[in-house]
Amino acid sequence: MGGTKKSLMRRLGPWLAGGLFIVALLAVDRVLGEYEWHDVLRHLHAIPAHAMLYALLLTTGSYLVMTSYDFLAVRFAGGRLPWHTVATASFVAYSVANNVGFAALSGGSVRYRIYSSAGLGGMQVAKVIAFCSVTFALGAALLCGLSLLLTPTAGAVLHVGSFVARTAGLLLLLLVAAYLFAAALRRQPLVLRGRTLPLPGLGLSLLQVLVSCLDLCLAAGVLYVLMPAGATGGFLAFLGIYVLASVAGLLSNVPGGLGVFETVLLLLTPAEVPPDQKLAAVLAYRIVYYLLPFLAALGLMLAHEIWLKRHLLLRWLGWGEAWLRVLTPHVIGAAVFACGVVLLFSGATPMLDSRMAMLRHIVPLPLLETSHLMGSAVGLGLLFLAQSVQRRLDAAWHLTMLLLLVGAVASLAKGFDYEEALVLLAMAVMLLMSRDRFHRKASLFDQRFSPVWLGAILIALLTSLLLAWLSFRHIEYSHDLWWQVALHAEAPRAMRAAVLTIVMTGALGAWLLLRPAPLLPDLPDEAALERARLAMTESADTAVNLALLGDKNLMFSTDGSGFVMFRPVGRSWIAMGDPVGPAATRAQLVWQFREACDTYAARPVFYQVGADDLPIYLDAGLTLSKIGEEARVPLTDFSLEGSRRAELRQLHRRAQRDGASCEVLPAAQVPEHIPALQAISDHWLVAKSVAEKGFSLGRFDARYLSRFPCALVRVGGRPVAFANMWISGDGSELSVDLMRYDDHAPKGVMDYLMIELMLWGRQQGLAWFSLGMAPLSGLTDREFSPMWNRVGAFVYRHGEHFYNFEGLRAYKEKYQPQWRPRYLATPGRTSLPRVIMDLTSLIAGSARRIVMR
Questions:
Q1: Which residues are within 8 A (CB) of 392 and not within 5 positions of it... i.e. 6 or more apart?
Q2: Over the Cα atoms of the chain, what is R_g?
Q3: Euclidean distance between the first and final Cα of the chain, in Å?
Q4: How far is 696 from 542, CA to CA, in rounded Å?
Q5: Among 177, 428, 695, 796, which is disulfide-ready with 776 (CB 3.0 to 4.6 Å)?
Q6: pTM of the predicted protein model
Q7: Residues 334-364 pLDDT 10s
Q8: How far apart are CA 742 and CA 756, in angstroms?
Q9: Is the CB of residue 92 less than 8 Å from the CB of residue 326?
Q10: Which stretches does DSSP call E strand in 683-748?
């Protein structure tokens, strides 16, 4: 039930934020009343240059102080990182969070990407995020409390009584004092609902309050120096209003608190100053404090992209490469969306009179009308392409580049809007510098839009329509407006552009709803199995041979150089191992598989993936959980000589004394031995009271076994045991799948067979022998370990009634292997229990067999 509520809130969150945004815009419109937007722009141009300079200096100081949030937080989390790493994380996180909204999610994800690549663990990053949030809350509570308590006019400003204002201020101050008191006296961490919440010491808590207050004072100072005379009522009173407006904007989750911040500020500041003057100051504040740092963050990323092309400077940029590679697609996708919004808003608002007069002698009227419509159409196209850009599709890169260039030309032709054209060209340059990131060949027509993305597009369209209405509401409507074509006929142009965007959106929406759903892939035929065999020729993993069993679906890459083998079970699509193919193909296949799952509303799961491709799964939004370790025996120096191999030597000699001999049958000779192998297999299944497994294990199938060499053990010339052999495509690894024997086999025949194959593999020049995975092996049970690791470690130690986990590890340890981790990639840890049930059912063959041995 809790998961359902969280899912519902995730879906409704963007829509609620959009609703608050629309309500806030309407409230601002009601406050402005008789004023027009050109009045606001006139007051904006009238702000003195020295006030803008002071605002820039205070903004620089505020963002420098904000780096102390993260510096203190990293210290509290037990990390030791260079200042430039902390400063970069802080600057980019706050720049993105201030403009995108959903601060905990957007800023938190930026911090996670940067800090995790710098060596901090997931729990440490969570502490950093929580610490920064608490730091801001402490400063906001203290400053707001002081303002309410010490400012005589606070009650009148807030439209409440003086007693109520001072009581509220006192309560806020008591909250801060209680936090400091707890930090000073609490020697043990708090425990709430089973979760341990450590508190910083008194010294660190005081620094939290000091840093937060200084930051908020500097941020409030930016707006204070821009406000007109008489609109503030003194800095201390204005500081309380600013903090209230900032908190309201933050809680609304609207990007940058847009509309909400303005509404609170206009309502609480003195009414003697006209609201259009105050709104002009707020607009200047947003440019200086929000937009310029965001553009600086994008410029920083662009500079890094440029320097990454210069091999001589790679060592100086090594610290930034990891987070830049992760953030670039997400930031560029958001920037492309923002460019689309800019074009839509530009088409909905009038152009400047001075530029209109200049265009009269340069641009023909038909070109002006066409460019206006083209700009709005390009803006809508960028909104729909932004998600595909974020997913790094090659086709999306080409089409977005074309639209950006067309949009830049249209911006110049429709109103000589060179600022808008420069933004679009800068975005095109950033795309050009990041060309190597867009390597995925998936089709644009197969993309599915998430509810959040569709909600963002709808909010942008509704806002552009609202802006058009606000800009031209003073013009009386008539049917003739639709047909007016003149230089100064801006309202008709905006109306035609609005209709064009509505029609295009409706057409795209109808196509998304009516297009046929893709067909669920069938099990592979012989031709598909042959394609898979050719694709695995360069693989270093023997487990990819499971694809030839034919019981799994195969999803091939667009160029056929790789594939994913998987099986749908319940609502989970479970892939066996990493995708097969070259590195670039594997990254493409992870996204291709994830999007196919999204099409069918299925959970994408990758089972037993290795450590080499973990960044690919993280980039695709999957969560990784360790599920065990794979044992691999080095064959280059493997022998039975020496005291270290005494146990293996004794097992081998005992089987030989009992008359055992081993023979490796080439794949071509296996079909003639199938009847003997079938008899051994049937006897083994009956003796063990087990049924055939599947998915991650092979089964007895004559066609499948005939594809591989087979090791056959004889006693007195009679076959008594066998194992089919897997050899990796690159010839580096050897492993076995089915290992079965009958009652005539000597004791320890499986060990004898293993040893013989290792000796054979060394003679053939193979480097490794894989003993397979030991489930739940290597999971740690520490205080800050993830819950899955702690549960898994407990089951590993005490689950002998269900599976001999420790015994299996001990059995493989006698071969003195090297261990490497294996992971399960899932869409979040909350889905783990359901995924584990689906996976167990898939391997067992059915849900009923889960309880069978």
A1: 329, 437, 438, 439, 440, 591
A2: 33
A3: 33
A4: 12
A5: 796
A6: 0.48
A7: 888 888 888 888 887 787 666 666 666 666 7
A8: 19
A9: no
A10: 710-715, 718-727, 733-741
